Each structure stands twice: as structure tokens, then as C-alpha cells.
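Readers of this paper often ask what the protein records in our data store actually look like. The remainder of this section carries one protein's record, kept here as part of the documentation.

:::
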Amino acid sequence: MNAEANVRFLIGFHAIAARLRSDAQSVQALWLDEGRDDPRARRLAAQAASHGVRVMSVSSARLDGMAGGGRHQGAVAQVTAGAPRWGSLEDLLDALTEAALVVVLDGVTDPHNLGAVLRTADGAGAHAVIAPRDRAAGVSAAVARVAAGAAESVPYFMVPNLARELRALKDRGLWIVGLAEQGGSELFSAAFDRPLALVFGAEGSGLRRLTRDLCDEMVRIPMHGSVASLNVAVAAGITLFEVRRQRAALAEASSVAQGRRL
């Protein structure tokens, strides 16, 4: 890969600030809307300057061109793709000190949905997001903006064969749970007290047949209105935080029981 192919634009205040915190050396330059002189713009400029990043004021029209139609909010940075913090998903899973919580996306191609899922995954403390290389959105400027920094913090692995990856996760002891409108049991009656891979499909098409066949369990989010299903990022948020709620309750119960034995 040549040097130019390794450079991209990052747009939006959240995404740029997160990159400066996590990997400031990869930020080559920052452009800010010359019409902005508010505290938020000044803070980002100061943060960039403190790391030796060149900061320039340019017209909104020039930022529009850099962002390629994305909503840049008045901030665009040129960044290089940093080295991944994990050489592989296997390395990441080997390093965990708690039960794995992985999100798997089957056919989610909309960058806004991917960005929202990454943001939700970060908030719920998911350890990684996995998607197939051939039927998924990659991390673009639009994804990074919607993710509000999570594209820089949540490991995102695009794998050549999703079915093979699910089998490998099974072999590592992860329980594969698919979310679908026709899922067998309701989400809030399912037990999530084990290493998990939560699998979500694209809106409309849902999970592919082979993906469904590889799931150990299918669950559904109970719906009480007129719509039949939820946006994938909303479904992921409900499910991930239910997992966290159950795990927190189990940890508290275990702590109480241990205290009684002492």
C-alpha cells in the first residue's frame, strides 16, 4: 500500500478529538471553519496544537470538498491509518479478563448504521465488532462522524468468511446469539451469563440463512407497537445493555454471597 492510500480525512469534532487522544501522531493536519470562533473550536485547536499538529482556518466550502458531502461540523483532519492495536481477533480474545462480548454484523452496508453500532458498542463495553469484507460498510469519514469517537476505540474486524469466523468463535467457547424478528425466545428471558457473540442482520433482509443456522440461539426483542422491527443500531443497543444489566446483577449477587461466607 502506498503512502497516499494510507491517508484519509476524518470529520467532526468528536471523531477528531478521539483520534488526538488515542493516536495523536497519526493526525497530520487540522482544518477549521474560518467562521467559527466558539469555545468548542478553540478547544479542538488547542488540543491539536499541543500535539504539534498544524491547524489552519479555511472556508466552509473547502471543508465541504474535503468531507465529500459528509457533515463535518466545521472540522476536518487529515490522518494516517494507524497500526491496529490488535494483530487479530484471536489476540484480542486471548487478552480478555472477562467474558467476551462481541458484536457481529451480517450485511450491514449503511455507513450511518455502522457508525451508530460502533458508538453503541463502545458505550456498552463490547470488545469488538466483526463484519464480512464483501457485504459490509468499511470505516469511512461518515462512519467516524456518526460513531463520535468510537471508530477510534472499538476494534472493527472485517473477515473474509463470516461463517468460518462464527465457527471459530464457537470453538473458542462463545455462545452465538442471533437477533431476529422471528427469534425463538424473548430477549429479556434469555440468559447472557457466558462469553457471547451477538449477531445482527441488515434492516429488511435480516440474517442470512447460513448465519442463522450457525447461531446457537435465536432471540427477539418484544415489540408492542405497529412496527415489526427496529433499526440495527437500536436493536444492538437494547441487546448489549441487557447483557450488561444481567452481568452486573450476577456480579453483585456473587459479591453479596461471597461477603456472607466471609
